[in-house]
Q: What sequence folds into this?
């Protein structure tokens, strides 16, 4: 059975953001057009970020899919590791602030930035 690999940005037990991969079964549809089960969503937003954009460290407030439509987006974690996502790539952003904690920019979250010569265009779909 084919699967879709979901890249997940999540908050680990130590409060730090990390990446992991999860498989989503494509067990619906037909052999020539395999589909996942229908998933709920809470709306979507499009974003355009200029060349040179960079956020500060932050947590995701509402888990959401992030699809890169144009340009490139780098996500940097507190441990110094990063990943660059290109057009057609995605991740599921779910690195929320742990319950009962106050945001600490030296521990929690991630930052994002536009990389390369093209503006960054993204689609956010709330989970």
A:
């Amino acid at each position: 059975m084919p699967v879709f690999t979901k890249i997940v940005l999540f908050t680990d037990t130590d409060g730090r953001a990390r990446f992991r991969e999860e498989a989503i079964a494509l067990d619906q549809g037909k052999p020539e057009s395999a589909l996942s089960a229908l998933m709920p969503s809470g709306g979507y937003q499009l974003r355009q970020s200029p060349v040179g954009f960079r956020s500060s460290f932050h947590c995701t407030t509402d888990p959401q899919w992030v699809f890169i439509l144009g340009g490139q987006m780098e996500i940097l974690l507190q441990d110094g590791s990063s990943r660059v996502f290109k057009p057609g790539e995605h991740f599921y952003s779910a690195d929320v602030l742990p319950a009962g904690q106050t945001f600490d920019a030296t521990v929690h979250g991630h930052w994002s930035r536009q990389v390369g010569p093209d503006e960054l265009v993204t689609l956010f779909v709330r989970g």
Summary: The two ends are 24 Å apart (CA to CA). The chain has a mean pLDDT of 97.
